[in-house]
Specification:
disordered C terminus; 5% strand; globular; 40% helix
Length: 515
């Protein structure tokens, strides 16, 4: 080793100091200097629609996603500076830029975390062809050699995966403790640029984005906020009721909200599991009903296993993550609505005329967040009721969701569409049944669709076309909302009998007459 042995740390979805093996690796390599780099994808600032769904490229980021990424990067940079290091943020072809920097500053090699997404995997292979690349396992609970079976034999369903994993590892928390954040780091290479450079500065324009307050929760980007949320949520009052509350639609603590920090790499799943295990061991001392609280909080572990399963399946699938994996089904099941059609556009805008769906889509656009229950419902409606290619929906979610994770998002859409693993065709939600079950008074709909706020509380909020067929009529406020839903589903009638004033004649699919 010479007096100057700089290394380059290439960060992607691992924007944290805690439980991140790249820092330990840099210290093990005895790096004299450390160049820490994050590269924004070339598509980051492009308009939505410029990347075709199904194409193995990253979708452009909404302003909300840009804001979350910006805050996470700035938070990490502050923490790195406190350790005598810094962060360089660039925009462009990551493989080309990382290779150039490694050569320019005579780096002995590049340290990064192994990627799940096919785009990032290709970039890493390209960098490996230019210089020494150390790829470390991070961001998952298990390493590949810890799976109960080879990756090529990954079980066909999550249930089977969970059974085999729990049989092989009865005590999943029994794994190496999460790595501690470093207390020191090598200095910054002399004359190397710092901070946001070039087109990456466009990300600064997202600083003032704010989520709509109707979402009842404000996400604060960055690792410190993620660790604080973990500490705050793991209490008997919140985590102790997780399984019971997780299907709710709104509120600050019905959900863990960990997913945003997980997606950006500000929290590691091992840190969450370790903290959960510690919390559960204290329940007998601090909880009146420890067994019930343990069972409810243990659903957090199950959600982490779902994430694990989707990540390993995405690595198995590679580019087929973005396809239906079978030539006979490629493109899913489009039934009359082509990409860019009115149906897709109305779904994206929250103007399908089905308030239950529209409320969810408006919340997504205004906050970058959607409850798991609503994600399943709006996805089912697009794919099963409108017959739109599932990849169109997955791409829109990728563009909008603050917690977008390529494996979980595309895996969930494939799962719901009946594509690939566990290909069942019965994942079809009845919108009116779901609305009656989860929003019987219409409070959620009224919150996100002010055009309908004047309607009486109850199921009339979910089927306003029926109310408008009666004496209630329409006023200037409701005139801006579709008079009829984009589609009438026969199965809805059974859940609307108590508000049906007259027989409604179905309108042609795609009709959006305003009255």
């Amino acid at each position: 080793m010479t007096s100057t042995d700089p290394w380059l740390v290439w960060l992607n979805e691992d924007l944290r100091l805690d439980d991140n093996p790249v820092w330990q690796a840099a210290l093990e390599e005895r790096a004299s200097h450390l160049l820490v780099v994050h590269v924004l994808a070339e598509t980051t600032f492009q308009p939505f629609g410029s990347v075709s769904p199904g194409e193995p490229r990253l979708q452009p980021l909404s302003t909300g996603r840009q804001h979350a990424l910006l805050g996470s990067l700035e938070s990490l940079r502050t923490r790195l500076q406190a350790l005598g290091s810094d962060l360089l943020i660039l925009h462009g072809d990551a493989a080309q830029l990382i290779g150039q920097l490694a050569r320019q500053y005579d780096c002995r090699g590049v340290i990064t975390c192994r990627a799940t997404g096919v785009v990032e995997h290709r970039q890493q292979r390209a960098v490996a062809s230019q210089c020494r690349l150390r790829r470390l396992n991070s961001g998952l609970l298990l390493d590949e050699d810890e799976l109960p079976e080879p990756l090529t034999a990954l079980p066909e369903s999550f249930s089977a995966f969970r059974r085999k994993l729990e049989k092989a590892r009865p005590s999943l928390p029994d794994m190496p403790a999460p790595l501690k954040a470093p207390s020191r780091l090598p200095g910054w290479p002399e004359a190397a640029p710092r901070g946001f450079q070039g087109a990456a500065r466009y990300l600064l324009e997202a600083r003032h984005w704010q989520a709509d307050t109707r979402g009842e929760y404000t996400f604060t980007p960055g690792e410190p906020a993620g660790l604080q949320r973990l500490q705050d949520y793991l209490s008997p009052a919140s985590a102790g009721h997780y399984k019971t509350t997780r299907n709710r639609l709104s509120g600050a603590d019905f959900s863990t909200r960990f997913s945003v920090w997980l997606a950006l790499g500000c929290l590691s799943p091992r840190r969450i599991l370790d903290a959960l295990h510690r919390f559960q061991t204290t329940l007998p001392e601090h909880c009146a009903h420890p067994q019930a609280a343990f069972k409810d909080s243990d659903w957090i572990r199950i959600e982490l296993l779902w994430r694990e399963y989707f990540h390993w399946d995405a690595r198995r699938l590679g580019r087929h993550t973005f396809t239906s994996e079978s030539p006979s089904h490629d493109g899913a099941q489009p039934r009359g609505h082509e990409p860019g059609s009115q149906a897709l556009e109305r779904w994206q805008a929250g103007m399908t005329g089905v308030p239950w769906v529209d409320a969810g889509m408006r919340e997504l656009a205004a906050t970058g967040w959607l409850s798991n229950r609503m994600r399943q419902n709006v996805a089912s409606f697009l794919v099963k009721d409108l017959g739109v290619d599932w990849r169109q929906g997955a791409a829109w979610f990728e563009h909008q969701l603050l917690d977008h994770d390529v494996a979980s998002n595309w895996g969930n859409w494939r799962y719901l569409a009946g594509i690939g693993r566990d290909p069942r065709g019965d994942r079809h939600f009845n919108m009116m049944k779901q609305a009656r079950q989860h929003d019987p008074l219409g409070h959620y709909v009224s919150r996100w669709i002010p055009e309908l706020a004047a309607l009486p509380a109850g199921m009339q909020c979910h089927a306003p076309w029926l109310a408008w067929s009666s004496s209630a009529g329409r006023d200037r406020t409701t005139a801006h909302y579709p008079r009829q839903p984009i589609t009438h589903v026969e199965g809805w009638k059974a859940h609307l009998t108590d508000i049906t004033p007259t027989r409604v004649t179905p309108w042609p699919s795609g009709s959006f007459e305003r009255g």
